[in-house]
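Homework help board

Subject: predicted structure for assignment chain

Our instructor gave us this sequence and asked us to write out the predicted structure in token form, then describe one feature. I got the tokens but I'm not sure how to describe them. Can anyone check?
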Amino acid sequence: MDIEVEDQPFDLDFHPSESIVAAGLITGRLQLFRYDDSLSHSQTLWSTTAHNESCRAVRFVDGGRSVLTASPDCSILSTNVETGQPIARLDNAHGAAINRLVNLTDTTIASGDDDGTIKVWDTRQNSCCNKVEAHEDYISDMEFVPDTKQLLVTSGDGRLSVCSIRKNKVHARSEFSEDELLSVVLMKHGKKVLCGSQEGVLLLYSWGYFNDCSDRFVGHPSSVDALLKLDEDTLLTGSSDGIIRVVSILPNKMIGVIGEHGNYPIERLAFSCDQKVLGSASHDHVLKLWDAKYLHEDDGTRVEAQEVGNGANEDMDLDVDVEKRGHGSKRKRKSEKGQTSAQKQASDFFADI
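My token output:
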């Protein structure tokens, strides 16, 4: 199902309990939509101007009662989901454009900016409780590891870092990969960290050995901007060639293609709360909702590889590439089946206002 949005979306997120999806747009607008179970009809709930500049990050919080957005205008905004009215705004939350948000606990969130700085916010006090200068370039993606209370962070400086929330410092940092790292996901029951790169290579790091990647999975013809875990052995990738692929990890194999956004780069991928719907955001002014129920079938059935657009890969094993990585160019920004993966948890934000 295609949901037309007002302009190019930068991020999307699903409500933690209802059939609602939010989209943050390049214009700074925030839009909320309700969709039916058959993915045949959608309804615009409301649309509002959340920021003066683009809305780069969107996350539902507080059990879905509010939605959080962040922007290059350095602010973080909390908006009421039912009314679309602002609850509270944290101006000058960062000294640089905010690029990513991630939920940590019920009372803490993390934000990453274009200077490589990560901040942790105590939502009970509406204040910054930790700050880590983790990278030298923009924070491209973050994933929280609850068991260790750490953040996996990728950056445009070509490094992966592991940031300790408890100790407020960088626990480990990889060497320069000579390519921008754009996305990150934890797999193999916490044993492997995967990073998507500007050149389309998936870098595999072994937990505890972050200095350099242990494997390189070549197969994407363009940059891998979005990663989404399907199960511990399988992930979905969103690439700048507009194709959403299903990929097996160790053994490394392109399983197939879910769909495409034409030749428009894919910015974000997300699952609905019940994992039955996959959402994708691209530069084509459309949110696409895909029926993902078949991806979780117990018989292990996977979508067969199919050629969709230029650069689609057939079902085949790909050898690990051990050649030296080439230098990646600076990522251009616009001006502004198996067991299911763990569901996102909602956290309070700007409480008691």
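Reply (TA_rk): Your tokens look well-formed. For the description, you could write something like this. Residues 299-353 have pLDDT under 50 and may be disordered. That's the kind of observation they're looking for.
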